[in-house]
Design goal:
Blueprint: H1 2-19, H2 27-68, H3 99-102, H4 121-125
């Protein structure tokens, strides 16, 4: 009797999870995903550049070692030059923070009392009347 109930419960949970939808990603999540994709593409270009330069060095070493051994190396094949991708540059423009998030309104020092205290400015700074 218990086995059919357990199987039915598990089937209900499995059906509920298959029909569940994830919420749409926020703009911040989309921006982070685009940034990650751009960084990944740049890393691929850097890897291709490093591979190209390594192949050029190996071919040059092969030709010089063949000449030193008095052997004839086959003629060099013309290929496209290696293109350096340069440093990574973020594609997303830096967004200006709103005034509340920028910290412009915050005092430079740490608070010594809660903002709602009834102490006067003279009492807080330690001065007497």
């Amino acid at each position: 009797m218990r086995l059919p109930v357990v199987i039915a419960t598990l089937a209900a949970f499995a059906a509920a999870t298959t029909f569940a939808k994830l919420p749409a990603p926020s703009d911040e999540a989309k921006a982070k995903a685009a940034e990650a994709a751009a960084k990944s593409a740049w890393a691929d270009k850097v890897g291709a550049y490093q591979l190209c330069t390594a192949m050029d060095r190996i071919a040059q070493f092969y030709r010089t070692s063949a000449k030193e051994a008095a052997q004839e190396a086959p003629p060099a094949v013309e290929t496209t030059p290696c293109a350096d991708p340069g440093p990574f540059a973020s594609a997303a423009p830096a967004e200006a923070k709103p005034l509340e998030a920028s910290g412009a309104h915050s005092p430079p020092g740490t608070a010594t009392s809660p903002p709602g205290s009834k102490a006067t400015a003279a009492e807080i700074s330690g001065q007497h009347k």
